[in-house]
Specification:
This protein is α/β, with parallel strands linked by helices. 26% of the residues lie in helices and 24% in strands. The chain is built from 8 helices and 14 strands. It has helices at residues 22-30, 55-61, 84-88, 107-121, 126-135, 194-200, 229-241, 264-272, and strands spanning 3-7, 40-42, 47-49, 71-73, 101-106, 136-141, 146-149, 152-162, 169-176, 182-186, 207-211, 250-254, 278-280, 286-287. The strands form 2 sheets. A 7-stranded mixed β-sheet has the order 6-5-4-3-2-1-14. The protein has a 7-stranded mixed β-sheet with strand order 7-8-9-10-11-12-13. The longest helix is centred in the middle third of the chain and has 15 residues, at 107-121.
């Protein structure tokens, strides 16, 4: 397995294209870990979490392609995580693997996605549309559902983050990896609501990936939508209390925007002063 962060930024990426805030100016000057493309995570050649508008850039940067990709776990319907145009671009390949792409997303997001795809396909006739749907299989997933995605055993969690589908809340994923380890990928969520906390009790992970979208900008206690550093630490404290994580758990912070004052190294120092082993992820970071 070759798990790594294709992107670690939020919706606008860093530096944001229209922006000259202090953060974006510094990021342009610093380069390196302070430059973040939109978030997605590669598990191996066949499995990926989210597919962003930056997928072409990411594939070029890391010398990869999506030829073998068969399973995409979508956290929610926002376009920085679910770029339908890039997913459908498999149609333009001269040679592809001849296998359908399975797209897993919440039941509400799947209904919204079908409408989006039909709109995107425009004036194609019914036979052409049916051929498309045979190549891209939308797989609706309920909250707290266990299912198979290729070689992976996956359990969906209800995130505290609203998206574009009717009454849609995002999905986070607990994934049993082929190497025997278990990972939670928790991107685009605020502090979990009670039903999710109750579901996590009695479970444990080896690897935890959580978002820290607003970085050093504290937005209040147990916020919804997105986390910041303080709220992420609050999440970690509760996870430790219920036994979901322990001191040996490898924790990664990702999905970071530019609306705060902690550059990459500054944020790492804040986490280093906490009681948790948190690595601030950056584009291209590999997880052993």
């Amino acid at each position: 397995m070759d798990m790594f962060f294709l992107g670690t930024g939020a919706a606008e990426a860093i530096p944001a294209v229209y922006c000259r805030c202090n953060y974006c100016v510094k990021a342009r000057k610093n380069g390196g870990k302070d430059v973040r493309s939109r978030s997605s995570f590669r598990i191996d050649e066949r499995h990926q979490i989210d597919l962003s508008p930056d997928i072409y850039f990411q594939m070029q940067k890391y010398g990869l392609d999506l030829y073998d990709l068969e399973h995409i776990l979508i956290t929610h319907s926002h376009e920085d995580h679910f770029d339908i145009a890039e997913i459908l671009s498999k149609e333009m390949a001269v040679i592809n693997n001849g296998k359908p792409v399975y797209i897993y997303l919440s039941t509400s997001a799947a209904k919204w996605a079908k409408t989006l795809i039909n709109t995107y396909l425009g004036n194609k006739n019914e036979n052409e549309i049916n051929k498309i749907y045979n190549k891209y299989r939308l797989v609706p997933v309920d909250y707290f559902e266990m299912f198979k995605a290729g070689d992976l055993e996956v359990t969906s969690l209800k995130a505290n983050h609203k998206a574009l589908g009717e009454n849609e809340y995002g999905l986070n994923y607990i994934i049993k990896l082929k190497n025997g380890k278990t990972m939670l990928y928790g991107v685009d969520t605020g502090y979990y609501e009670q039903d999710t906390w109750e579901f996590l009790e009695g479970k444990k992970v080896d690897i935890l990936v959580m978002e820290a979208t607003f970085g050093g900008r504290y937005r209040g206690f147990q916020v919804s939508g997105h986390l910041d550093v303080k709220n992420l630490i609050s999440v970690l404290e509760r996870m430790e209390q219920i036994g979901f994580i322990e001191q040996s758990t490898n924790i990664y912070a990702t999905h970071i925007n530019h609306k705060h004052d902690l550059m990459h190294d500054d944020m790492q120092k804040v986490f280093d002063s906490s009681s948790f082993r948190v690595t601030v992820a950056y584009d291209g970071l590999r997880i052993p």
